[in-house]
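Handout, section B. The chain below has 242 residues.
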Amino acid sequence: MDYKDYVANAQGNNFWFYRKTEFIGILLDNLKLDKNIKILNIGAGTGQDLDTIKKFGTVTVLDIDQKALNLIPDNIVEKKILADACDTKLPESNFDLILAFDLLEHIKDDKKAVLEVLRLLKPGGHFVFTVPAYSFLFSAHDRYLEHFRRYNKKDLINLFGNLNFKKIELGNWFFFIFPAIFCYRYIIKILKIKHEKYKIVVINRFWDFIGNITILKFENFLFKKGMRYPFGSTFYGIYKKI
C-alpha cells in the first residue's frame, strides 16, 4: 500500500487491496517459479502483499520512505532496505524475481528504474509489475499520490524496447469496475478539483463487500481460469531477462 493511502486510512483490507494481493498471487503462481528463490520487492510501501509474496521465496523489501518500511514486520522479510529504486547500490545479478507494484508511475526517470531492475536480475529472472493505466484518466487523484504519469500500452512497450527483456505477458486488470473509475475521474476533471483539496475516498462497508465478494473475486476467478481483459484501470506486466 502507498504510504499516503495508509495515512488517509484507506485500509489494506478493503476490496481493492485485498483482491489485488490475490491477483499478484495468481500472476506468480502462473510463472511456475522454483521454490525458495530470491525476491526483491521494490517500492514495497507498507507491505500489505508480503504474506502472499513470501510464499514464493525469501523477500528483500526496498523503499525510499523509512516510515513505510517501519510498518513492515521484521519477521516476514529477510531484509529491509532504504534506497532509491534507480540507484539501489545492491550487487548485480542477485535476484531471481523483482516486483514493483504501482511504483514506476512515482519515478520521474522510469527508464532508469527499469535499467536498475535489469542490472539486479539474474539471467532468466523475471520482473513483474503493475502501473495505473491510460493517460486520459490522469487526475487530481494521481497528483495527490505524486504520480508523474499513467501509462498507455505503447508507453510500456517503448519503456522495455531495446533492453535485454523478453515480454512474457502484458495486459489489464480491474476490468469490471473500469466504467465507474472512468466516470469518477472525469467528474474530478469536470469539477476541476485541485490535488491540494483532493481526498482519497474511503470505501464504506457495503461497497467494500460488493467489490470484494462479488466483482473482483469473480474477475480474479476468470483471470485464473485463463480469461484476459481488453481494458482495465491497471496494467500488469511480466518480463524475463535474457
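Note. The first helix runs from residue 3 to 7. Compare this with the example in section A.
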